[in-house]
Amino acid sequence: MPLFLTDEQTMLRDTARQFVAETASVSHMRSLRDAKDLTGFSRDLWKQFAEMGFTSILIPEAEGGLGLGHVEAGVVLEEIGHNLTPSPFLSTAVAAVTALKSGGADLRQVWFPRIAAGEAVAALAVDEGAKHRPAQIALKAERSGNGFWLTGAKNFVPLGHVADLIVVAARTGGSPGEEDGITLFAVDKGVAGLTVTPERLADASIAAWLSFDGVEVDGDAVIGEIDQGWAGLSRILSAGRAGASSEMLGVGGGAMDMTIGYLKERKQFGVPIGSFQALQHRAAHLYSEMEVARAAVLKAQQLLDADDQEAERAALVAKAMTGLAATLAVQEGVQMHGGIGMTDEYDIGFYMKRGRVLAELFGDANWAADQLARVSDY
Question: Closest Cα partner for 82 from 238, 252, 222?
């Protein structure tokens, strides 16, 4: 598979680039932050995403979607990252849609049209500790007649406080640390026994801490097979990691573009600082790291679209490499901007904050590298 976009994917990229830049640039994020917005994104903008067809990229054509793939979803996510656009696209149009594809027809008929129309937001509830450790799931799902009682807690659920649908990974068997015994559930918002505590993160986005105190769900809420949810969860997390990597590419690219522009404009000793060889070397190194990460992300997305067994490993590679490359981009950006890079008046600091949050989502670079070694039997 060639590591470049097709003509159709390039057209989508150009469309998404113009749309997001015109409707949801960094100033849009600033306005939500300054207004202390409690939603975390603009619902009107989410509707516009739907009108553009972005929300239905991964939904099969037979079920009212565009029937495209993770490469196309990544194209949109990169533009979201480049403009620091607050959006439920990753959790809803990528992670939740991937999950629902393994669900029953009734679930898909309920949620696919709402997601495609921009009328629903979804969240993925997996983590329970300070770090991403999906095998350590301890939230219990105990049988009760035809359904289950959910008891436990979930941490760091982006937009979990406003999600209409929460995809919850729970334990119906086994013990924390084991892959067997995991089951996925589709939980509607507002159910009895669910307590949601929102918390604003470093980048001004909002995540939620969820407490399940005997939340009752029926058998139709099960996504996939009971006790056999690890394979489905792995597919969802691989899709999420590839998507988060695309958004980080956008964050890193946006920071790099700002930095290169600053190097051309800022003068010392009567010449642009970009003419200094030391800064040129650093800029060239950053560019090469970003391009290597871009190739890793595209490869992961292509393998996901091909349903290749190597997709999980490729997604781990992409998450690790973009985490490192994006971190380098934002750190170099702040440093090369000098004192102004540390102020709230300049945008470069926002790229650093968003990159930091995305780096933790679905596992940071160290965890991804360690997990890659484990699945490769190192």
Answer: 252
Q: What is the pTM of this model?
A: 0.96
Any idea which residue has 């329970």 for tokens? 128
Is beta strand 222-223 parallel, antiparallel or unpaired with respect to 165-171?
Answer: unpaired
Residue 305 exposure: Cα atoms within 13 Å on the Cβ side: 19
> Cα separation of 34 and 136, whole Å?
37
Among residues 95, 27, 31, 83, the alpha carbon closest in space to that of 57 is found at 95
pLDDT at 376 over 80: yes
CB atoms closer than 10 angstroms to residue 332 = 22
CA–CA separation, 370 and 378 (whole Å): 10
3-state secondary structure of 171: strand
* Cα 364 from chain centre: 12
pLDDT in tens, 112-145: 999 999 999 999 999 999 899 999 999 999 999 8
Q: Rounded to whole angstroms, what are the CA distances from 263 to 260, 272, 337, 345?
A: 5, 6, 8, 18
